[in-house]
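quick one, 453 residues, struct below
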Amino acid sequence: MGYMTMARRGKSAVARTRMRLALVMAVMALVVSTIGLPGLSTRAGASSGKSITIASVAPFTGADAALGPKYEAACYAAAQAINKAGGVMGNQVNCKTVDTRGDPADAVPAVRQMYATTSNLALVIGCTSDEASTVVPVFDAHQTVSFCMTGESEFDSIHFPYFFRLVPPDAADSVAMVKIAQNKGYKNIALAFGNDAGSQTFVSPAEAAIKRAGMNVVSNQTIDMNATTFETEAQAIVAAHPDAILMEALGAAGVALLTEIYQLNNNKMIPVIGTSGMIDPTFFTGVTTGPIGVQNFISNFNADNQTVNVGGPAYPLYKKLVLAQSGKVKGVPNFQGLLTANGTVHLYDGINLAALAMDMSHSTVGAKYKADILKIAEGVPGAVVVSSYAAGVKALKAGKKIRYEGVGGLYQFDSYQTAFGPFEDDQYNADGTTSAVGASLGYCNLTLCKAKP
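---
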């Protein structure tokens, strides 16, 4: 709880990073001291020959409750295809949700309960910036492979052997947002980011990127994600006369903020550039059903996003599988909106990578299959490219080496097992999907965007 309080009070990026690092070390010590206790299996992932479990560890309640369902949908979509192909070595895949409430203090007991009650846990997905600092050390101590949707900076420099992320750090996300602003000729920028840990990680990198670009921050507002009205923040932003607002405030808070800004600005929307996390069906539906409306919103909102290969071979099956989950996953008002949502896209790919690695290694135990994830993602000499689990299994059974090209394209990992892919500038369509506009933003790292990685 202390970590969340520090972030909400606006401590500097350095102070927050030090606090997170201390928290990581404390959790690792706690895990080491308790890992032998009853109910904490150290062989999570061992297969019974009947089924395996993939757990979505993420916020399903709280300020960031919109995130969990996007990840849950990815699990059900991937599991449907895997099970149709016969399962992982005959094991049917089951999906389980673990609610962290978006709070690092609540996340650890929820994860402990997961280990105490889950049989044949083979993989964890989700784990956002809200709670990753506290739960990733637990996953690693249990040798559980995890694909996390966290952009926290500590994972840029601390190696966790079982941790993978198919999305770049939040600092790169911030650089991509500023690149969009540059391309549009904006000079004066307002910032509006939630007080949750996952949103605050964007602020300092955005400020630095804005300064490097020769722009100005004219207003910097921290949004209380538990509040229902934002008159003070909205007035400050409108009074600053920004060319655009860079923001991340998910769910009802983001909807309320933009609505109040619109009304205070004489029913005129100030252009907004959102993070990739704001490609979200709940946010889109909330804004467009209010006074702003669909056309006004989609013509004034852009978001950076990692490139989604909608013209690639993996996309048609992915689209069919995701839309088939409509009605099965609660908290998603429009499943069309998941088709380009980075959490759904990349976790679907991550599950396929992990499942194929299990088949390649002939094991569902993380310690045995994790090395094959990198081989399948990056390819080895002579590998054939596959775009689905079924095609990958068929090739493996034929004795072939494989490289997986997913909905997010091809993945190349750095030494900390983070994949940096190209970014694009996305705009919403009227149905809640998004499309890329303009040229690619390039490969954005912690300081700049460039044409090649």
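The two ends are 38 Å apart (CA to CA).
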